[in-house]
Amino acid sequence: MFLRSRSQELLVGGRKVLSMLGRRSHDIHKKINEFPLFEALRKSLSIFVSQKLVAKEKVDSFNFPLYTPSTQELEDQLYREGSFTIDSMKQDYHDWMFENAPKMLSKTCRAATESLICHHFGEEIVEPLFQTYSQVLYERFVAGEDIGWCQITIALCKSATR
């Protein structure tokens, strides 16, 4: 539906560039941590549960709608939908292994999730949660653990078939 809607915005031969979080692995069942930033958020919420600052049931009912495709899934979906041809597709892995990264990544995650967190848990949790989140990311950084993500950028051309 998204692709069809974007297609309607363009003339044949028109171009569109999309950039999104992606998965490095094509195997959806592969047991690798593709999203250390969201894993750190999960751990931060678990810390709040252990400190009795948030009810476990409240965390268990928190739904963060996130789907991240592999490049193969994107190619398959674009082919099936049929409105676009792929000019280019690039997958990059951003490993944020520099000293100020945990603080910067905490601000990035906060910008992306704050409204969902406020709505589900209340505004009072936001500041302490992201202080904890920064600390969790910092501990991962110091331990040499991954705190990056996969980004897919795809350049599309509207085809004449739709």
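^ that was protein a. below is b, sequence first then the tokens
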Amino acid sequence: MDNTHALDAFAALSQSTRLDVFRLLIKAGEAGMTAGDISDTLGVRQNTMSANLSILSRAALIRNKREGRSIRYFADMDGMRGLLAFLMEDCCGGRPELCQPVINELACAC
């Protein structure tokens, strides 16, 4: 990931609803959620939600899959890993033991 892509991701996450959507899709895991379910869960109008989902998709933080007439959204774990790797690229000035607590905190316990 380069600076431009990282800035796109941070810009996408810098708005409250989009951050809530991203965190909700992380929680949903492999099952994902339909756009309507996301809107209902967060109490956001569907046209507003559609715009927010587009921004998150362009930032490579979420992906979607058409299912008949609806679209299911998922957190893009590769995009999230890329962003986290970008942040930690030069971690701890050659002393990886200093980064281990952060890595342990990020590790999924599921």
